Amino acid sequence: ALALLQLSLYLRVPSRYGKHEERLCRPRGRLPARCAWFLQELPSFLVPALLLALRSPPRLEPLGCRLLCCLFCWHYFYRTFIYPFFTRGRPFPLQLLFFGMLFCIYNGFLQGYYLIYCAEYPNDWCTDIRFTSGLLLFLLGMGINIHSDLLLRQLRKPGEVTYKIPQGGLFTYVSGANYFGEIVEWFGFAIATWSLPAFAFAFFTLCCIGPRAYHHHRYYLKTFTDYPKSRKALIPFVF
User: Fold this and answer.
1) What's the number of domains the chain is made of?
2) Which residue has the higher pLDDT, 138 or 65?
3) EC number(s) of the enzyme (predicted)?
4) Alpha carbon distance 196, 16 (integer Å)
């Protein structure tokens, strides 16, 4: 339901931060991008860690369950403690930060609680085709996401706020390469866990950042006359 609401709100009008903020009213309260991203992503790492610490005795058996929980925390460790300190984005609106934190608290609890308290996997889950294929998709998506973030950071020198055409990597084919990577990542996680909470999160991710990739694509086409016409918005060769 949250995913469909998000899709209906932002399919026509982009959320008001980053390159889309100039065309809309500027919010009054904003935080530096590094601080805002750290605060927003922290609950998704901290909440599952606290759930695990409070579980006595820890319930992360068999090995497949431990690996799945580690995948989720691994992504948000990167997003919380590495990505914010390298980002060069513009100040972030406090209103969006607040709603982002609420979602990360809820989703961190949902995914962590399921894996730590509810999930039941056979001892040979690590060899199941759903786990192995999902893990490969997760790693592929995370690799694309991190590499695309690196390419975006290299577009700007320290202190610059102007936007440039992304080049290299999957940006050769799509305008939202970083978003495409994250969508692939979470659908891989959903397949590996084979659970309703994870599929709900993957669907939310698609509905949340899919429209943003579309608006980025439109922005580039309108702003840069030399923008490659062959690029798609999100999915190579399709959309």
Assistant:
1) 1
2) 138
3) 1.3.1.22
4) 30
